[in-house]
């Protein structure tokens, strides 16, 4: 018999709960109901439903706050919001916060069932895709290093978008590799043999920006002693990458919009129109929708450019990619500087993995170069890390080191080593010489459950300690809960 899917409905109206029960009575779904945000939180700490139906009006906290909490905790369950105050603006805002769909009260029975079944099917297919992709993961790709799940998604989008003519809109924090991503898209396109030209819209003075893009004729302004070709002409036949596009002046945005629409432009001070064939890629470290809302970015330009969105994850969300990238930098700079470094000490690896990296890959690169220039040895120790990484370790980092590295010198006086033994050896000890044989799946499940319990139900921390992807851990947990239902 096929296992039922688990759906959590967070709704404080008992009549509505009864109505939803009637609507879903004949569906192959196990439905749980919670009337407050706090009771929903407690439920989600112990269970991972396949879908959450969330009312925005709750008696203790708002549905928006609960949605933000769900996303902050890393709970992978998709959320469908139900509200009596529906509007396009509300829907857009909720989607930005992480909701996948939006229902307005009163909810029609067919609409409710269709929405739930569609999202459950989408989640099922996504799980199949991730399982399939796990056999074909790439540890590096066109300048990127790392095989984490978030980066696999980036690689897939580049693969799909590269051969097309569509404009790609890259978003991500400073230092995440947005220009690397743009070059990868260019290299995946039929224009790979043509020019790739990048311009940083935030690094050039406003009064010179138009000339940088379109060029100028001799005498167009003071200092224009000769005619100059802009990046628009330089990129003809290839790709023009507009980095930090949200920094561009509004008046120039208007001219850029016309250029993108027609492929035509005039040099500053000129009266001759030129035509080029360009593929546009743009990037920003800001929230472009927020820039539109604040009137700093033209809405028509946003929708013209925002054809294929491509978010680059921050380094702190990339798990063991941090160590892979750091090791690549370490071996490269050690060779350049004639140093002996080949690896990081186990306790240093934990510090690197748990540091939040506000400057992302660029900061990590600078940290490793600093280490190699100022120190030498076979393995990088914690003492060789520059500030703020070499500051006193937090309790969480000490616990992680003790649990992950029984050889570390920090484990000797750490009582957490007992917990390490509990997690690492789920098989019961016995005085008998007869071996205790148990199915591998049972051992895996017991180890995971003990680790989650040790982490007070925090699945993300458990995934870090077990060195597996959080999404993999959530899927296993979800499958066990479904079997028990």
TrEMBL record:
<dbReference type="InterPro" id="IPR002078">
    <property type="entry name" value="Sigma_54_int"/>
</dbReference>
<feature type="domain" description="Response regulatory">
    <location>
        <begin position="6"/>
        <end position="120"/>
    </location>
</feature>
<dbReference type="Pfam" id="PF25601">
    <property type="entry name" value="AAA_lid_14"/>
</dbReference>
<dbReference type="InterPro" id="IPR002197">
    <property type="entry name" value="HTH_Fis"/>
</dbReference>
<keyword id="KW-0067">ATP-binding</keyword>
<dbReference type="InterPro" id="IPR058031">
    <property type="entry name" value="AAA_lid_NorR"/>
</dbReference>
<protein>
    <submittedName>
        <fullName>Sigma-54-dependent Fis family transcriptional regulator</fullName>
    </submittedName>
</protein>
<keyword id="KW-0597">Phosphoprotein</keyword>
<dbReference type="InterPro" id="IPR027417">
    <property type="entry name" value="P-loop_NTPase"/>
</dbReference>
<dbReference type="InterPro" id="IPR009057">
    <property type="entry name" value="Homeodomain-like_sf"/>
</dbReference>
<keyword id="KW-0547">Nucleotide-binding</keyword>
<keyword id="KW-0805">Transcription regulation</keyword>
<keyword id="KW-0804">Transcription</keyword>
<dbReference type="InterPro" id="IPR025944">
    <property type="entry name" value="Sigma_54_int_dom_CS"/>
</dbReference>
<keyword id="KW-0238">DNA-binding</keyword>
<feature type="domain" description="Sigma-54 factor interaction">
    <location>
        <begin position="144"/>
        <end position="373"/>
    </location>
</feature>
<dbReference type="GO" id="GO:0043565">
    <property type="term" value="F:sequence-specific DNA binding"/>
</dbReference>
<dbReference type="GO" id="GO:0005524">
    <property type="term" value="F:ATP binding"/>
</dbReference>
<dbReference type="InterPro" id="IPR001789">
    <property type="entry name" value="Sig_transdc_resp-reg_receiver"/>
</dbReference>
<feature type="modified residue" description="4-aspartylphosphate">
    <location>
        <position position="55"/>
    </location>
</feature>
<dbReference type="InterPro" id="IPR011006">
    <property type="entry name" value="CheY-like_superfamily"/>
</dbReference>
<dbReference type="Pfam" id="PF00158">
    <property type="entry name" value="Sigma54_activat"/>
</dbReference>
<dbReference type="Pfam" id="PF00072">
    <property type="entry name" value="Response_reg"/>
</dbReference>
<keyword id="KW-0902">Two-component regulatory system</keyword>
<dbReference type="GO" id="GO:0006355">
    <property type="term" value="P:regulation of DNA-templated transcription"/>
</dbReference>
<dbReference type="Pfam" id="PF02954">
    <property type="entry name" value="HTH_8"/>
</dbReference>
<dbReference type="GO" id="GO:0000160">
    <property type="term" value="P:phosphorelay signal transduction system"/>
</dbReference>
<dbReference type="InterPro" id="IPR003593">
    <property type="entry name" value="AAA+_ATPase"/>
</dbReference>
<dbReference type="InterPro" id="IPR025943">
    <property type="entry name" value="Sigma_54_int_dom_ATP-bd_2"/>
</dbReference>
């Amino acid at each position: 018999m096929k296992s039922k899917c688990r759906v959590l409905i967070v709704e404080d109206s008992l009549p509505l709960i009864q109505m939803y029960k009637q609507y879903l009575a004949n569906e192959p779904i196990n439905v749980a109901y919670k009337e407050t945000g706090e009771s929903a939180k407690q439920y989600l700490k112990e269970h991972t439903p396949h879908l959450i139906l969330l009312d925005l009006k709750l008696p203790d906290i708002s549905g928006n706050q609960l949605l933000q909490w769900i996303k902050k905790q890393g709970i992978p369950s998709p959320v469908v919001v139900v509200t009596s105050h529906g509007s396009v603006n509300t829907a857009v805002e909720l989607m930005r916060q992480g909701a996948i769909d939006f229902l307005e009260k009163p909810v029609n029975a067919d609409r409710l069932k269709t929405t739930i079944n569609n999202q459950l099917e989408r989640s099922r297919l996504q799980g199949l895709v991730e399982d399939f992709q796990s056999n074909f993961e790439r540890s590096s790709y066109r300048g990127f290093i790392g095989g984490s799940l978030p980066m696999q998604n980036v690689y897939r989008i580049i693969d799909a978008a590269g051969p097309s003519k569509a404009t790609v809109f890259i978003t991500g924090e400073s230092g995440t590799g947005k220009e690397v991503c743009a070059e990868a898209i260019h290299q995946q396109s039929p224009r790979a043999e043509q020019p790739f030209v990048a311009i940083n819209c935030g690094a050039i003075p406003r009064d010179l920006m138009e000339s940088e893009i379109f060029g100028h004729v001799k005498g167009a302004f003071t200092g224009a002693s000769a005619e100059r070709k802009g990046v628009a002409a330089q990129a003809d036949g290839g790709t023009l990458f507009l980095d930090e596009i949200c920094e561009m002046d509004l008046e120039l945005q208007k001219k850029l919009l016309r250029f993108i629409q027609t492929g035509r432009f005039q040099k500053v001070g000129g009266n001759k129109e030129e035509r080029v064939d360009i593929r546009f890629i743009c990037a920003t470290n800001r929230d472009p929708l927020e820039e539109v809302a604040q009137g700093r970015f033209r809405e028509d330009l946003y929708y013209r450019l925002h054809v294929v969105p491509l978010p680059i994850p921050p380094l702190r969300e990339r798990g063991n990619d941090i160590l892979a990238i750091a090791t690549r930098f370490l071996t490269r700079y050690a060779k350049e500087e004639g140093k002996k470094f080949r690896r990081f000490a186990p306790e240093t690896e934990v510090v690197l993995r748990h540091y939040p990296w506000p400057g992302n890959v660029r900061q990590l690169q600078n940290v490793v170069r600093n280490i190699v220039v100022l120190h030498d040895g076979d393995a990088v120790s914690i003492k060789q890390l520059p500030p703020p990484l070499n500051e006193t370790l937090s309790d969480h980092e000490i616990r992680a080191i003790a649990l992950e590295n029984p050889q570390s010198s920090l484990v000797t006086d750490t009582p957490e080593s007992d917990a390490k033994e509990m997690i690492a050896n789920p098989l019961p000890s016995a005085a008998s010489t007869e071996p205790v044989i148990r199915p591998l799946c049972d051992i895996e499940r017991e180890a995971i459950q003990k680790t989650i319990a040790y982490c007070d139900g925090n699945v993300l921390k458990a995934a870090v300690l077990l060195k597996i992807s959080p999404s993999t851990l959530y899927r296993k947990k979800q499958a066990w809960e479904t079997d028990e239902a």
